[in-house]
Amino acid sequence: MIGYMVQLLAWTAFIAAAILWPAGRLDYPAGWVLIAMFALGGGAMILWLAKHDPKLLRERMAPPVQRGQKPWDRVWLTLFMIGFCIWLPLSSWDAARAGFTAIPFWLQVLGAAFILAEGAGVWWTFRENSFAAPVVKLQEGQRTIDTGPYAIVRHPMYASALFLFIGVPLLLGSWLGLALAALFIIAIGWRAVHEEAVLRAELDDYDAYAERVRYRLFPGIW
User: Fold this and answer.
1) Is the pTM of this model over 0.85?
2) Backbone angle region of 141, left / alpha / beta, with phi > 0 → left and psi within -120 to 50 → alpha
């Protein structure tokens, strides 16, 4: 548990630097709100998983490159993380460049609500699926999950992430960050399609599940 909290502390320090340094100032309320949301959300996840699903906690806190991970996913995840580490400070810089007034306050509040919705979606996914690893690989004893959010869309974790990538730039106050979020949404859709190819090939009942639940991320759309 201590090791996981140290990881969270290091991640929070990175997030704080990535937001506050490009902004060029410490009096950035929206930035501090986002830092607090990441820190408190991460801490809540660690504590809840430690009590209810320690195995999943180990998976979620494991390195991004793992044994059994599909090679294409190692490339994807590496590029995705690099993109995130560029996008976050760029959003902060863009907000500062506009004097932190480009996005109206009510949209910033909506952005915060979207981030909370992402956290709720992730928690719901974790509650239903002990195989929700951060990398694409088949785990021992893995089976198709079709309850909870998986009865609505086939990739509820990815669907939740869409709220995050829209909510973060709105909260920070960056139109540029919001525009660039489209690249992350496209990347998530690409991964969902390729992950499904793995699941269809390696899980006997996934094809039948995909027939029952038709949509990947957006109910009624895709």
Assistant:
1) yes
2) left
